[in-house]
Amino acid sequence: MATFLIVDDHPRFRALVSVLLREEGHDVVGQVADGRGAVEAARRLAPDVVLLDVHLPDISGFEAASRIAGQDGAPTVWLTSTHDGSDYEEMARRNGARGFVPKHDLSAAAIEQLLG
I need a labelling partner for 29 at 20 to 30 A (CA). Which of 9, 42, 51, 94 fits? Predict the structure, then answer.
């Protein structure tokens, strides 16, 4: 079982992903709607994984990923977006994230691959 922090400015997406994760036996320790909140929550909650939207209302997901990756004991960060983002994979890794997964590809199997 892994612990997750979900970061997305759409409450419905956060709720859907929370249900998916819990159905797979994982624990959602927090949900936030912006990048600065993500950085603070990652430090405070110490999740195993942060699922982080690229497009946030304050700072970009890339900037948030970079800040989270710089924390002691940083969690694994995966960036996500509704956009295909074929060029996001490289940008995600350059900013300290493990990689990128499009939102439309999120499924139970995809979550397990994120943990692998």
Answer: 94
Give the domain CATH number at 73: 3.40.50.2300
Contact call for residues 8 and 30 (beta carbons, < 8 A)? no
**Percentage, residues of the chain above pLDDT 70:** 100
Residue with tokens 């909140």: 37
Which residue reads 């590809």 in tokens?
105
Q: How many residues does the chain have?
A: 116
* pLDDT per position as a tens digit, 53-84: 999 999 999 999 999 999 999 999 999 999 87
Range of the domain at 69: 3-11+19-84+92-115
Here the tokens at position 59 are 């700072």
pTM of structure = 0.94
Q: SS3 letters for 31-79?
A: EECCHHHHHHHHHHHCCCEEEEECCCCCCCHHHHHHHHHCCCCCCEEEE
Question: How many distinct structural domains can be found in the chain?
Answer: 1
How does pLDDT run across 30-55, given as a tens digit for each residue?
A: 999 999 999 999 999 999 999 999 99
